[in-house]
TrEMBL record:
The gene is nadK. This is NAD kinase. It comes from the Bacteria. Its EC number is 2.7.1.23. It comes from Paraliobacillus ryukyuensis. NCBIfam families: PRK03501.1.
Length: 264
């Protein structure tokens, strides 16, 4: 059966000519090019990791397709395995190599107890003013600590190499279904005390963050690279989902190879 391909890109990043070339190549390798992301077998994201994150969000975190990142330059990000500099390699691989996939877990984030959102990298909560923000941290129903500082982020394993890494969080293998909370500049004094290290929680735990309503309760919330537009934030709950997205798995791109090529 012929497989279908959907190309995701930002209009001002990819020229009409490039897109036509990719579509022609796809057809010459017996693929069908579709304009419907909800039915495509392969979703090919043309751009860097930031565009990849948007493509996954804007196509609904589909579980029954394979996401493939194709960078516009020679540089590969964490999620990018192919490059527009050698476009044919992608179609040759899909045609001639056994295509396996690797699962990347998502977290589920509910803000003010409303319908949850998925995140592939992390949810970030940051003070939007010069003053610090105070947040009470609960694990399941256990009150753990009261944080005061610039903010907190909660990341997935594949997001652990992004914002979390800049905050000295650990890099986690995505085959472990767990998530990590990391502090952004915590105050630690006789009034406010936190563990001060990042926490890794197992998939059956629920993290609840209660924003202290002291006037600084309009933080900036980031869901991967998208800003959440709501005003007053009272609480945020984060847990693991049973949902995964699937990335192409080539002989040389297991997770630790991705890390090596991106950082070392
Ligand atoms: P950006 O500000 O352009 O991205 C920051 C950097 O993070 C870029 O180099 C991006 O790679 C890289 N990146 C994204 N996801 C990654 C991952 N899972 N592993 C390793 N590197 C990753 O914004 P963006 O490109 O839209 O990416 C959004 C992400 O930026 C957020 O989800 C957050 O994790 C991260 N971020 C980091 C900081 C920080 O480190 N201080 C602050 C804010 C946000 P590309 O160049 O390939 O896009
Ligand atoms: Mn970027």
């Amino acid at each position: 059966m012929t497989s279908s391909i959907y190309f995701y890109y930002k209009k001002d990043h990819v020229t009409k000519e490039t897109l036509e070339l990719l579509e022609k190549l796809a057809i010459s390798y017996q693929f069908v090019v579709t304009k419907k992301s909800n039915v495509a077998d392969y979703i090919i994201c043309l751009g860097d990791d930031g565009v990849f994150l948007q493509s996954v969000r804007n196509t609904g975190f589909r579980e029954n397709c394979t996401y493939i990142g194709m960078s516009l330059t020679n540089a590969h990000g964490l999620y990018n395995d192919f490059s527009l500099e050698e476009p044919e390699t992608l179609f040759q691989t899909l045609t001639f190599a056994p295509v396996e996939t690797e699962q990347f877990p998502l977290v589920d984030v509910s803000i003010n107890d409303e319908v949850p959102f998925y995140c592939l990298n992390e949810v970030s909560i940051r003070s939007s003013i010069i003053k610090t923000i105070a947040i009470e941290v609960y694990i399941d129903n256990l009150y753990l600590e009261r944080f005061r500082g610039d903010g907190l982020i909660v990341s997935t394993p594949s997001g652990s190499t992004a914002y979390n890494k800049s905050l000295n969080g650990a890099i986690l293998d995505p085959t472990m279904p767990c998530f990590q909370m990391t502090e952004i500049a915590s105050l630690n004094n006789n009034d406010y005390r936190t563990l001060g290290t990042s926490l890794v929680l197992s998939h059956n735990k629920k993290l609840r963050l209660e924003i202290i309503q002291d006037g600084n309760d309009h933080p900036i919330i980031g869901l991967d690279n998208e800003a959440y537009a709501i005003r007053n934030i009272n609480n945020i709950s984060v847990q693991m989902t049973n949902k995964f997205i699937h990335l192409i798995k080539l002989p040389n791109n297991n997770y630790w190879e991705r890390i090596k090529r991106t950082f070392l």
